[in-house]
Amino acid sequence: MKLLIATRNRHKFGEFIDLLGLPPEAVACAADRSDLPEVEEDGQTFAANAIHKAITWATVTRTWVLADDSGLAVRALNDAPGVFSARFAGPNATDADNNRRLLELMNGVTDRRACFKCALALVAPSGDLRVIEGTCPGILLDQPRGIQGFGYDPLFVPDGFEQTFAEIEGASKNRISHRARALQALRSTWPECLRGF
Predict the structure, then answer these.
(1) N or C: which end of the chain has fewer CB within 10 A?
(2) pLDDT in tens, 38-86
(3) Domain with 105 in it: what CATH number?
(4) pTM
């Protein structure tokens, strides 16, 4: 039985592969499944969206599903863009559109504190559900730097670093990111959940 990673984002799937430490044949990407219904991420929290997606796709596939919802919370913007991170500049916004919108709103703002947040929901075929979260605090720059990563990575400098997530080498990012911290917490809290893959 494979673990279905509930994302159609290939960049995010690649991060999951690196972080889980599972053999590639044990993991499947939702982008490769045509039978999965669209799931509207209309929850008020990252956890609510992750749970909704995981349960929906576990019911359809009758397999283990690991879903996440994640995004950026900016203190000066009352934690926006939050659950709207992927569509901050509109429903079909690109990463560049979202970054531009964020920079417009942050123009002249001196409090640049921000935090990436990730909620993971792991659902077994039996319906057993586990939820855990991870965060990565940092600051926002006033212009993008770097070409790696995706989303708001070119604007975000994690605490303890001088480079943005888009400048930090992938293996280093995968040790400190919000998604890495959530997965580390999952593996240490419920190690039995990932042993069968």
Answers:
(1) N
(2) 898 899 999 999 999 999 999 999 999 999 999 999 999 999 999 999 9
(3) 3.90.950.10
(4) 0.90
